[in-house]
Amino acid sequence: MTEPVIEAQGLSKSYGSTVALRGLDLQVTPGQVFGFLGPNGAGKTTTIRILLDLIRQNSGSVRVLGLDPRDDGVALRRRIGYLEGDFVVDGRQSGHELLTYLGNLRGGVPASRITELAQRLRLDLRPKIKTLSKGNRQKVGLIQAFMHEPELLILDEPTGGLDPFLQQEFTAMAREVVAEGRTVFMSSHVMSEVQKTADRVGIIRDGLMASVDDVERLRESSIRHVEIVFADPVPAEEFAGIEGVSDLNVSGEVLRCRLDGSADALVKAAATHTVLSLTSQEPDLEEVFFHRYENGPAGHPASGAQS
Amino acid sequence: MIRSVYAKWLWDSRRSLLAWTLGILFVGCGYAAFWPTIDNPDIAELIANYPEAILEALNYTNITTPDGYLMATVYGLVVAVLMLVFAIASGTRIIAGEEEAGTLDVTLSHPVSRASVALQRVAAFVTAVVALVAVFWVAMLAVAGPASFDSVSPARFAAMHLHLGLFTVVFGCLSFAVGAATGRRALALAVGAVVGVIAYAASGIIPQVEGLEWVKDYSAFFWLTGSAPLTNGVDPAHVGIMLGLSVLFVAIGTVGLQRRDLAV
């Protein structure tokens, strides 16, 4: 196994009486998109700001690209591209002006590289940043994180404010980074967004890593809400015993249930009738959490979790 | 092409620097041009009838000479107050202002150390002050003939402007230090303003109280005009105090910044 890009052990951080992290462990190996998933206030931004030495942990150790953020911050940040959750810059400059300057702080980034990224994200670099929409400002933020082709990209909620086309473009950009053997560490509170982009997902909750999994496995294990509309009314008992089905509710032609794991058995049972439509909805994040705490192998007590 | 935090700071401040320069030239030269009106026997007689304590409290004791007038009004009061406000605003913005606006993170997530960002910006602020007092010096020399205070030599004006520049730098560095060490913009502004007001009182009114004459030695306003640089040239002791305090403040702010968490 190659050396991890990010390795944190027992990270703790409090702000006054507010505890943000309570002993977080994190390991990210190179050449993957790691999705750092959790609800607002779980400690995602706190963790990320420690990685960049913007804040310091109360206890625990952290190494990024083999370096200590505290001791080798400058050398480390040279090799990192960072997009903060709330990208704010002085609005009285154009995107071009800002990106050229930030590139110069890194020893220069070719103008062609900036133009290429701007074209790809369909961003006009000429207007003053204060005149840009929230989504366009986010593009400026994405460009400054990607433009110097860093070994590690640390992105805090990168796709907030982007429309579906741009979210897709972002996913493509992240996949290209990984294809070159570089690494992306991105936080999000949107499950579907992480599933599209990431190879591996770490779920953080209440300042602790609740579980770390490959996206594929998480997808299989996560529950969905399924609604099937049949041509004619169906008997509920036909579906009651099916593996993974719970909260079953059949009223006339419409079947609603919660599905855990593979959809195979349910689909095969439904196929004996005429199916007009089938929708499968991903649960919101909280539900995934609760589900994992109920059944999952998460080693930490689910304090405060209600089912 | 902007390659450094230092150059970026100056470039981003260009509009506000222009505004401050024009304001100070306008007010400073305006008050200075008033000198011929003051310079007549009626005013001299009026002044002579004032109680000595009031004249001292207002630093008006030598107001009937051109250098005395300029130090009492232009350098000791109106321009000093404008420079003070400029200094506090600039010093606060260096770290605390940017931090509260949320723009500091972007800079500090790049390969520059916190100390380097702080020192480059302080250097940019000092550069701006030097430019400001230099332009103001040229303007005063230009007005000197028409306003008939050309008996004061350019060298004496240069000495006065050195004191004025350092006076500005001290307050800028004070607000920088408070802001950098705490990250609190309001506190940095408040400390600068309160110290400024106390320093003003300590150079004029407070020393009139029996037994409190000594406080003026600790006032930045006294270090500015107390040695009468326009009459006597540079005062090494006062220049040294202002220089030393500035260095101390910059050190405190830079060390404080390195040791703390940055606000989101």
Global outline of chain B: globular
Give the beta-strand count of chain A. 13
Distance between termini of chain A? 38 Å
- At the first level of CATH, what is the class of the largest domain in chain A? Alpha Beta
Explain this structure to me?
- The complex is a heterodimer of chains A (307) and B (264).
- Chain A has 307 residues and is α/β, with parallel strands linked by helices.
- Chain A has 2 domains: 6-215 and 289-295, P-loop containing nucleotide triphosphate hydrolases (Rossmann fold, 3-Layer(aba) Sandwich), CATH 3.40.50.300; 223-282, Protein-tyrosine phosphatase receptor IA-2 ectodomain (Alpha-Beta Plaits, 2-Layer Sandwich), CATH 3.30.70.
- Chain A is 33% helix and 29% strand.
- Chain A has 11 helices and 13 strands.
- Chain A has helices spanning 44-51, 73-78, 95-105, 111-120, 134-146, 164-179, 191-197, 215-221, 237-240, 264-270, 285-295, and strands at 6-15, 18-28, 33-37, 59-64, 80-83, 152-156, 183-188, 200-205, 208-214, 223-230, 245-251, 254-260, 275-281.
- In chain A, the strands form 3 sheets. A 6-stranded mixed beta sheet of chain A has the order 5-6-7-3-8-9, with helices on both faces. A 4-stranded antiparallel beta sheet of chain A has the order 11-12-10-13. In chain A, strands 2-1-4 form a 3-stranded antiparallel beta sheet, with helices on one face.
- The longest helix of chain A has 16 residues, at 164-179.
- Chain A is globular, with a radius of gyration of 22 Å.
- Chain B has 264 residues and is mainly alpha-helical.
- Chain B has one domain (5-37, 75-259).
- In chain B, 75% of the residues lie in helices and 0% in strands.
- Chain B is built from 13 helices and no strands.
- Chain B has helices at residues 5-12, 14-32, 35-38, 41-48, 52-57, 66-101, 104-108, 114-144, 154-182, 185-203, 220-225, 229-232, 236-259.
- Chain A binds chain B through residues 45, 49, 52, 54-56, 73-75, 77-78, 80, 82, 84, 86-90, 92-93, 100-102, 104-106, 144, and chain B through 1-5, 8, 12, 101-103, 105-113, 261-262, 264.
